[in-house]
Every structure is written in C-alpha cells, then in structure tokens.
Automatic annotation (TrEMBL):
<dbReference type="InterPro" id="IPR000146">
    <property type="entry name" value="FBPase_class-1"/>
</dbReference>
<keyword id="KW-0963">Cytoplasm</keyword>
<dbReference type="GO" id="GO:0042132">
    <property type="term" value="F:fructose 1,6-bisphosphate 1-phosphatase activity"/>
</dbReference>
<feature type="binding site">
    <location>
        <position position="121"/>
    </location>
    <ligand>
        <name>Mg(2+) 2</name>
    </ligand>
</feature>
<dbReference type="Pfam" id="PF00316">
    <property type="entry name" value="FBPase"/>
</dbReference>
<keyword id="KW-0378">Hydrolase</keyword>
<dbReference type="InterPro" id="IPR044015">
    <property type="entry name" value="FBPase_C_dom"/>
</dbReference>
<dbReference type="InterPro" id="IPR033391">
    <property type="entry name" value="FBPase_N"/>
</dbReference>
<feature type="binding site">
    <location>
        <position position="120"/>
    </location>
    <ligand>
        <name>Mg(2+) 1</name>
    </ligand>
</feature>
<feature type="domain" description="Fructose-1-6-bisphosphatase class 1 C-terminal">
    <location>
        <begin position="203"/>
        <end position="336"/>
    </location>
</feature>
<comment type="similarity">
    <text>Belongs to the FBPase class 1 family.</text>
</comment>
<comment type="pathway">
    <text>Carbohydrate biosynthesis.</text>
</comment>
<feature type="binding site">
    <location>
        <position position="279"/>
    </location>
    <ligand>
        <name>substrate</name>
    </ligand>
</feature>
<protein>
    <recommendedName>
        <fullName>Fructose-1,6-bisphosphatase class 1</fullName>
        <ecNumber>3.1.3.11</ecNumber>
    </recommendedName>
</protein>
<keyword id="KW-0479">Metal-binding</keyword>
<keyword id="KW-0119">Carbohydrate metabolism</keyword>
<comment type="subunit">
    <text>Homotetramer.</text>
</comment>
Length: 340
C-alpha cells in the first residue's frame, strides 16, 4: 500500500465533493505553517525561541487574555498570519494572541473563509520541553461581507467547515476533520510531508481515564465536585470501578490521548475568577476540538449543552469543557443537569 500524503488525501476529498479547491489550498497552507512552527519549537534552547516575549516598551508582553506571551506564542502567530496572507483563500484571521481579527492585506485577493487559531497551545510546556500544539478552525465568511469584522466570526461551532490541530510531540502530527471523519497524519521529517497514519479515528464510548487540573477542586461548582468525587472514589464508590488520571497541561496533548485511547477531558467552570466561565476559549479551543471529537464518535459539552450548539457572543469567549468518550461525557453532563 503506498503511503497517502495529506496532499493526496485532500485531492481525493475534493474529488468526492467534500472540500472546495479553496478550502483544500487553505488546509495545505495551514499544514505548511505548522511544519514551520514545528521547526521553531524543535530548536529549543539552541534557537532564540524559549522564554517570555518582550513588550515594545520593555517588560513582559501581555496578550488580550491577560497572559504573559511566550516568544513561541508570538513566533507561531506570525508564521500562521504570514503563511495565510497571500493565498487568496481567506477573508480574515482571528487568534488567541490578537484582540481583534486581522483582515487579509490589501495587496492580496480575499477569499471566502475565516481562519481562527490558537497558534501555540499549552505554552507553559515550552520551557520544560514537553508537548505543545496549534489548534485551528475554519468558518465561512458571511455572504456579501468583503471586510470581515470580529462579529462575522461569531458563528456556532456546528458551522465549522474544517477543524484540526498539530501536535508538536516526539513526532509532529496533524489531526484534521472536514466533517467526514477525523484523520491523523504524521510528519515524515525526511520527506517534509504529512502522511496519513490513522484514518477515521474512533474514541471508545467508555473509559476509565479522566483529565482535569485537580488543584482547582475547591473552586468548582457542586455537580462537578460530585462527579469527580465519584470518579476518585473508584470501585468503592457509586461508579464501582477505578479511574486513572492524566494531565498533559496542553489541551492538544490531552485531546490527542483521548482520540487515541479514549478518556474524558474536563476544564470546568470555577469560581476562581467569576468573570471567566472556564479557562478555555470557545472559538479556537473548544469548538475545533469538539468537532474533531464528535467526528471520531465522541461527545463535547459545557457540562449542560453541546459545545457546537453554543452561539458565540465574543471572539475570546471562554467556556467550560467536558469532552471525549461519549458515555462518560453523557454521565458528567447528567450530574450537572440533574443538579440544576
Ligand atoms: P494556551 O497555552 O493556549 O493559553 O492554553 C492553555 C490551556 C490548555 O492548553 C490547557 O489544557 C490548559 O490551559 C492548562 O491549564 P492549567 O494551567 O490549569 O494546567
Ligand atoms: Mn495563552
Ligand atoms: Mn490553548
Ligand atoms: Mn495558545
């Protein structure tokens, strides 16, 4: 069996009518940008890529989330913007690292798609040489809009035409959906191309593994306390079985594990900062991951509602996240709905 490159896979999807030529080009460009980010991440301490980014006037650079930006947050954002500027397939980009969306420069033609990304996910892992990733989501630009604004991005996740992530781990992997299954490609570093290594990923419906930052336990609401408490009680509790815990601290890493062997990933609402309903961002973290997980037979909710049905109200909106093995996400959601 000859190996199937990302390019061949996308051409075949175009022939099947699943992807337009413009969307195919867009996904190729995102994949190329991810290869460049992979090279930058891989330089580690030998390149000038570790540590915090400096603000123009000195001190640390703080992004719209109120987080200190790492150098690689900024480098990855610039690589994605630059790679996508000239292809003619995009109307605008929005990113975790930019307060507002950025239109395609006037020098280039504008296309019909909107690209949203978390250029570097899990950036606290950079300086310890652990896995990080890039997450992206593709939306259609609303009809008749030539200069897309932030509000043009505010579409429910169910309207995404494509979503994916690139994991920069021991190997670099691109995991992609265009609404016809979730497929994993591994970067062949000698050839420089992504090769299909797992087509149609399937998440087992049941699991004995969960992922949550337990240090926030005292800030959770009662149903989250009850649900996780019952997982921790193991075979002595109402679940009647033991559960294992894993936490990569990069959503891309945790979701990749779940796509590979099942599990539930949770970043719940907590009262640490009542102004923020959860830590993760709907548009460029929860929505693309929810689409990938659903396309692999899993489920994704905010504890009560399907993530992909949420109507966004702002670009950087945060949302609680429960995603992964279908039966387990349904159980966690039931704890919350029964409590209301
Ligand atoms: P980002 O680095 O893009 O800001 O995202 C970080 C997120 C996500 O990747 C991860 O699941 C979570 O933060 C980790 O949170 P803790 O710091 O609570 O472990
Ligand atoms: Mn961040
Ligand atoms: Mn992130
Ligand atoms: Mn990020």
């Amino acid at each position: 069996m000859p190996s199937i490159s990302l390019t061949r896979h996308l051409i075949e999807e175009q022939r099947s009518g699943h992807v337009t030529p413009d969307l195919r080009l867009l996904l190729e460009v995102v994949a190329r940008a991810c290869k460049r980010i992979s090279v930058a991440v891989g330089k580690g301490a030998l390149g000038d890529v570790l540590g915090e980014a400096a603000a123009a006037g000195g001190g640390d650079s703080i992004n719209v989330q109120g987080e200190a930006q790492k150098k690689l947050d900024v480098i990855s954002n610039e690589i994605l913007l630059e790679a996508n500027a000239w292809g003619g397939h995009l109307a605008a980009c929005a990113s975790e690292e930019m307060e507002h969306c950025q239109q395609i420069p006037d020098a280039f033609p504008r296309g019909n798609y909107l690209l949203v990304f978390d250029p570097l996910d899990g950036s606290s892992n950079i300086d310890i040489n652990a896995s990080v990733g890039t997450i992206f989501s593709v939306l259609r630009c609303p009809e008749g809009v030539s200069a897309a604004q932030d509000h043009d991005f505010l579409q429910a996740g169910s309207t995404q035409v494509a979503a994916g992530y690139c994991l920069y781990g021991p190997s670099t992997m691109l995991v992609l959906t265009i609404g016809h299954g979730t497929h994993a490609f591994t970067l062949d570093r000698e050839q420089g191309s992504f090769v299909l290594t797992t087509g149609h990923m399937r998440i087992p419906a049941q699991t004995r593994e969960f992922a949550i930052n337990m240090s926030n336990q005292r800030h959770w609401e009662a149903p989250t306390q009850a649900y996780v408490g019952d997982l921790l009680a193991g075979q002595d509790g109402p679940r009647g079985q033991d559960f294992n815990m894993r936490w990569v601290a990069a959503m891309v890493g945790d979701v990749h594990r779940i796509l590979t062997r099942g599990g539930i990933f949770i970043y719940p609402w907590d009262r640490k900062d009542p102004a923020k309903p959860g830590k993760l961002r709907l548009m460029y973290e929860a929505n693309p991951m929810a689409m990938l997980v659903e396309q692999a037979g899993g489920a994704a909710t905010n504890g009560r509602t399907r993530i992909l049905d949420i109507a966004p109200t702002s670009l950087h909106q945060r949302v609680p996240v429960f995603l992964g093995s279908k039966d387990e996400v349904e159980t966690a959601t039931r704890y919350h709905l029964q409590h209301d």
